[in-house]
Amino acid sequence: MRLELDEELNACNYLHLQYDGWSNLRNEGIINSLISKPQPAYIKSLNTETNAHTSEYLSQGIEKVMIVYGVNKFLVLIGDNARNIQKAFGLIKVKYPHVVPLGFCAHCLNLLFRDCLKNASVQVPIVKLNDGREMPALALGTWLGLNSKGRVEPTSNEVEQAVRWALDAGYTHIDTAWIYKIEDQVGRALKGVPREKIFVTSKLWNAFHARDAVVPALRESLRSLQLDYVDLYLIHWPIGQFANSSYDITDYLETWKGMIEAKKLGLTKSIGLSNFNQKMIERILENGLEKPAALQVELNLNLQQPDLVAYCKSQNIAVMAYTPFGSLFYSKAAPDAPPPRIDDPMLVKIAEKYNKTVPQVALRYLVELGTVPLPKSLTKNRIEQNIDIFDFQLTDEEKSLLKSFDKGYRIYPQYKWQDHPYYPFEKKEIK
User: Fold this and answer.
1) Strands 318-322 and 294-298
2) Which pLDDT tens digit goes with each residue over 59-75?
3) What is one Pfam family matched by this protein (predicted)?
């Protein structure tokens, strides 16, 4: 990266960067991110003196130019007019001859931003769990999804690469599961990462609901992950099902007791549920068993589940949101899926206001609902975009619009299991 940047710097002998829309640039948060970085003493002095002599600069026809960041002897200026920035460089060179006033082309400046913001550029908030533990408020999802043939199987090391990109972008929470068949890839990607710096969630599959099957199942996941423990272990579904697809009607209370035992053994720091409904959670509590630390369910614009979210909030149970994009993408939306789509004019307008994408707005909305989104992607730039949602806030009017898209539409109702005694969702009428 540094060699690439140096080559760009050496290739530039004058500045020809122009930015259309000074106010928009300020809203991006780039400036605040950069000036908060440690800077050489002369840069701090230069910033102070520049701010103190704004009128002097304006009198010489230099407007809307800001000193952003110094790298070694290089100085980055951003402005709305290339000529004005060149004048500013000239003035600075006279007063500070040790500063190299090389110009930056737009591509070079982008490289510099990427380099400066590469490590932990996005600070993800923390959610306090009811057991005293802390969980990052966003995670990379690692499920590969479904296709016409069923569950998508990994083809190479695509998940391993995605996790590496996520770590570089600042993610500290990875969500996975035994049934995804990629825990080994997650484990390889995490090699070398200090254990205390990463939060790993995994899940118990339906075939291991017997109380005495929970701990062995978790140990198998840990071997694949190459970890001594996970931070959060969830019962994936309340539905038990043997490997031959016949139903296991083990009471999920027994499964939960197995989860409690796994926690006591130190194999997981926290335990929780996935795809359980409110009555099922209430039954666990009524039986005097440990309260779940978290509940993971499908949540997106079309399925906001306000009653369930409110109940969990009242019980101090963290809510994690899978399938957070819902049916936004045309390629993923079923024919009967309600709007919106990614090009919805109202959503595009909100996104443009904050210099974000529509998916980023959808993720931000889930955060403001008090939930932990689990966006999944195998594309580097989308992985980076998905975590970049903590530098803006939606207005009440915007949240009201986003709330109006809730139609109770479930993408994964799993009707194939609806005759199981512990099916958690609304059943489909058989005509």
Assistant:
1) parallel
2) 444 444 444 444 444 45
3) Aldo_ket_red
Euclidean distance between CA atoms 333 and 323, whole angstroms = 12
Count of alpha carbons within 13 Å of 350, Cβ hemisphere only? 24
User: What single-letter amino acid sits at 190?
Assistant: L
Q: What is the DSSP string of 150-188?
A: EEPPP-SSHHHHHHHHHHHHT--EEE--GGGT-HHHHHH
10-14, 34-38, 139-143, 321-325: range with lowest mean pLDDT: 10-14
Q: Which of 59, 96, 106, 54 is nearest to 75 (CA)?
A: 96
Q: Active site residue: 180, 233, 354, 423, which one?
A: 180
pLDDT digits (tens, 9 = 90+) for 178-224: 999 999 999 999 999 999 999 999 999 999 999 999 999 999 999 99
Q: Are 106 and 17 in contact (CB under 8 A)?
A: yes
Closest alpha carbon to 127 in 199, 230, 202, 190: 199
Asked whether 131 and 137 are in contact (CB, 8 A), the reply is: no
Instruction: Using the structure block, give the residue that is written with the tokens 């049934």.
Output: 179
**What does the alpha-carbon distance between residue 338 and residue 301 come to, in Å, rounded to a whole number?**
10
Please tell me the distance from the alpha carbon of residue 185 to that of residue 220, in angstroms, as a whole number.
14
Q: What percent of the chain shows pLDDT beyond 70?
A: 71
Query: How many Å from the N-terminal Cα to the C-terminal Cα in the chain?
Result: 61
Distances (CA, A) of 351 to 1, 198, 358: 30, 30, 5
* Per-residue pLDDT tens digits for 381-423: 999 999 999 999 999 999 999 999 999 999 999 999 999 999 9
pLDDT at 152 over 90: no
**pTM here?**
0.74
To 5 degrees, how large is the angle CA 344–CA 347–CA 352?
A: 120
Where, residue-wise, is CATH 3.20.20.100 in the chain? 126-416
Instruction: In whole angstroms, give the CA distance from residue 178 to residue 203.
Output: 6
Active site residue 311: no
Confidence (pLDDT) at 175: 98
Fold classification of 126-416 is TIM Barrel (3.20.20)
